[in-house]
């Protein structure tokens, strides 16, 4: 069941509590995000960028887990629901084994623009709820173990400029809804198990500059 969250502005202190919760659920080391009350996450925490005093970017790429966190790593990011002006979330090369939660797109702030989850050991399906994040401009999900078909809802991401789904285990065909991704500049779905015809409307998207469908099992160009 997908939960829809009504967003109200959180205070920085509430966002700070959310960051501590995120640090706990992901098993992050304290040297990146120290605990003292006098610490300002906007200025003193690694990978945190703020805009107008509110957390706008979380970058945990290159972070290491505690020993306890390494024993049971999970994709546990529920705390992001209280980062209500989040624009970027980068976990490149940070292990998040397991599927992207089905509620991800409905619980994360709709202001999210860049999502980078490359090399995160993600499994399972791409949740349909991802299509609810209408402000996304860049989505990087490559080099994981993501399976299943591409959700039709991705075609609702009309602001998307970059979509990288390469080097996964995706199956099925390219959804017809991809014809609506008019702002797409780069589309990489190489090295998957995709099949069926390639829709001409995808090949001829008006701003598309880079298209990589190599190493799949596509049959032919369809008439759309």
From TrEMBL:
Entry-linked InterPro entries: Leu-rich_rpt, LRR_dom_sf
GO biological process, one term: brassinosteroid mediated signaling pathway
Keywords from the named record: Glycoprotein, Leucine-rich repeat, Membrane, Repeat, Signal
Any single GO CC term annotated in Swiss-Prot or TrEMBL for this entry: plasma membrane
Domain of life: Eukaryota
Subcellular localization(s) per the UniProt record: Membrane
Matches recorded under SUPFAM superfamilies: L domain-like (SSF52058)
Pfam families: LRR_1, LRR_8
Single GO MF annotation: transmembrane receptor protein serine/threonine kinase activity
Gene3D superfamilies attached to this UniProt entry: Ribonuclease Inhibitor
Name of the featured protein: Leucine-rich repeat-containing N-terminal plant-type domain-containing protein
């Amino acid at each position: 069941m997908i939960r829809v969250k009504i967003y109200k502005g959180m205070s920085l202190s509430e966002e700070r509590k959310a960051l501590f919760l995120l640090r706990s659920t992901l098993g992050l080391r304290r040297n990146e995000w120290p605990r003292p009350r006098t610490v300002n996450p906007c200025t003193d925490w690694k990978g945190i960028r703020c805009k107008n005093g509110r957390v706008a970017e979380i970058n945990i790429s290159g972070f290491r887990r505690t020993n306890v966190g390494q024993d049971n790593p999970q994709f546990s990011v529920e705390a992001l629901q209280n980062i209500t002006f989040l624009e970027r979330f980068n976990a490149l090369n940070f292990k998040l084994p397991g599927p992207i939660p089905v509620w991800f797109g409905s619980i994360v702030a709709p202001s999210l623009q860049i999502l980078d989850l490359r090399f995160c050991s993600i499994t399972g399906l791409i949740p349909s709820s991802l299509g609810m994040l209408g402000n996304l401009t860049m989505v990087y999900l490559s080099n994981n173990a993501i399976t299943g078909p591409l959700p039709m809802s991705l075609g609702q991401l009309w602001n998307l400029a970059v979509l990288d789904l390469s080097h996964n285990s995706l199956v099925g065909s390219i959804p017809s809804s991809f014809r609506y991704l008019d702002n797409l500049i780069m589309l990489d779905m190489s090295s998957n198990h995709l099949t069926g015809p390639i829709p001409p409307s995808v090949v001829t998207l008006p701003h598309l500059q880079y298209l990589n469908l190599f190493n799949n099992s596509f049959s032919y160009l369809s008439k759309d």
